[in-house]
Amino acid sequence: MAAGEAEAGTPVGLVEQWRDILSLHARTMCELDRELHRHGLGASDFEVLDVLAEGTPEDSASGYRVQEIAGQVHLSQSALSRLIGRLEKDGLVERGMCSEDRRGVRVCLTPKGRALHAEVRPLQRAVLSRMLESDSPE
């Protein structure tokens, strides 16, 4: 194998860059979990609340389909369903049937969920700023 190449001709720098991304992601998720835990949330919980809160006014009234949320928070459908169940139990979201498709489920924020999101959003954004700006590639 030539110097500066990993398996199958992949440049070593590319592999190192990938590992740096994974490391930054892991450190950032741990820091988010640590900050948000004080408010009864994890990083994934917050991401779901954030997606729901940042929707258009029409979205917030009718909510998002679970599949739409899954595509934005990068969780499997089953993991997302369990997470939504916990958020619903805590009174942060409500689930309802889709009017256009009886098999679909829509999720929307409750007033309690909207208030908690507004309270912790600055914390989450501060962690992102601290972690991503301090570790940005040169």
From TrEMBL:
GO terms for biological process: response to stress. GO terms for molecular function: DNA binding; DNA-binding transcription factor activity. Keywords: DNA-binding, Transcription, Transcription regulation. InterPro entries: ArsR-like_HTH, HTH_MarR-typ, MarR/SlyA-like, Tscrpt_reg_MarR-type_CS, WH-like_DNA-bd_sf, WH_DNA-bd_sf. Pfam families: MarR (PF01047). It comes from the Bacteria. Residues 1-138 form the HTH marR-type domain. SUPFAM superfamilies: Winged helix' DNA-binding domain. This is MarR family transcriptional regulator. It comes from Streptomyces tabacisoli.
